[in-house]
Amino acid sequence: MRRFAFSLLLISFLIEAGFSRLNNLNTVENYMNICMLGMHHKSSPSPEKGLTSKICSPWAARSCCTEETALDIHTDPTWLNFDWNHCGSLSPSCREYFIMDSCFYSCSPNVGPWLVEDVRKIRKERFKDVPLCKPECDNWYDACKDDLTCINKCPQGSTCKKFSEIYENSSSLFCEKVFGSFKVVDDVDNCFHLWFDAKYPNPNEAVARRRASEILNVKYEHVEGAKLTDHNKAVSSCSVWELGWMLSMLLLVAVL
Ligand SMILES: *[C@@H]1O[C@H](CO)[C@@H](O)[C@H](O)[C@H]1NC(C)=O
Predict the structure, then answer these.
(1) Which Pfam family would be a valid example here (predicted)?
(2) Which residue, by CA, sits nearest to atom 14 of ligand 1?
(3) Is the model more confident about 11 or about 76?
(4) CB of 169 shorter than 6 A to ligand 1
(5) Same structural domain, 43 and 93
(6) How far is the CA of 237 from the centre of ligand 1 (A)?
(7) Do 206 and 234 share a domain, yes or no?
(8) DSSP state string for 138-159
(9) pLDDT > 50? residue 236
(10) Does ligand 1 have an atom closer than 6 angstroms to the CB of 168?
(11) pLDDT at position 149, please?
(12) Are residues 219 and 239 both part of a single domain?
């Protein structure tokens, strides 16, 4: 009986892997209308009028985060268990960059083409190798290089070191390794901005659209940011993927 249940469990996990919603993205619009499957993310991007002034403002027109999440990012120093002040306070300019990064992580509606599966309590997907503009990375690094860190929680007995020391004076190493989400690129016409003035259209939109076209092997078509539809074209988040999970959990309960 146990063996049977275990086999079923295995099969349902395999089915789930095969039916990952990321394998079902088959139009550019699918890629453009998806948010990371995470605890603090919406299911698809939509306007958030509350994201004004400093509160994750670039993403007001189309956002994967709610206003509430944006507020938490700005006010909670241990948001998502990342303690900013684990080696004494971060300098204000460095902290500001980490806030921008958190806003990007939670709110950017353009990471669809770089989503991969993940298995953590806070998220079932993450983005990987998003092309970050080198000048933005350099600024982030310059703001933080003399700040102290031991990367999140300091293990007992470990010492705090400067970011520059840990990342060997390399801005690219810093941006790529600090959270493992970015790939620093020189091509200034085809890279992401961590932040931009909300007066202007989202510059990352075209980069994501180009990448989605590349993945699907279709011709890239430029679309003005304003013309992007907000109605829900996203792949439903209650997908076969979740069904698979539910089945697995039910079976797990049955086995135990
Ligand atoms: C980084 O720069 C500092 C100061 O210029 C220097 O002492 C150190 O050796 C450099 N480290 C590496 C890994 O290049």
Answers:
(1) Folate_rec
(2) 168
(3) 76
(4) yes
(5) yes
(6) 47
(7) no
(8) HHHHHHHTTSEESSSSPPTT--
(9) no
(10) yes
(11) 85
(12) no
**CA angle centred on 99, ends 109 and 157, rounded to 5°:** 125
Structural domain count, the chain: 2
Q: What are phi and psi of 86, to 5 degrees?
A: -70, -20
Report how far ligand 1's centroid is from the alpha carbon of 163 (Å): 12
Closest CA to 71 of 102, 35, 42, 94: 102
165 Cβ inside 6 Å of ligand 1: no
- Looking at the DSSP assignment, which residues form a beta bridge with residue 161? 149
How many other CB atoms are found less than 10 A from the CB of residue 133? Answer: 24
Nearest CA to ligand 1 atom 12: 168
Q: Which of 161, 169, 173 is the pocket-test mutation for ligand 1 (most atoms within 8 Å of CB)?
A: 169
Give the range of the structural domain holding residue 63, as residue numbers without chain letter.
Answer: 36-224
Question: Looking at the structure, do residues 157 and 45 belong to the same domain, yes or no?
Answer: yes
Task: Work out whether the CA dihedral 46, 202, 129, 165 comes out positive or negative.
Answer: negative
- Cα–Cα distance for residue pair 131/255, rounded to 1 Å: 44
Q: Report strand pairing: 161-162 vs 148-149.
A: antiparallel
CA-nearest residue, atom 4 of ligand 1:
169
- Which atom of ligand 1 lies at the shortest distance from residue 168's CA? 13
Write down the pLDDT at residue 20.
80
| Residue 76: per-residue pLDDT | 77
Distance separating alpha carbons of residues 219 and 27, to the nearest angstrom: 11
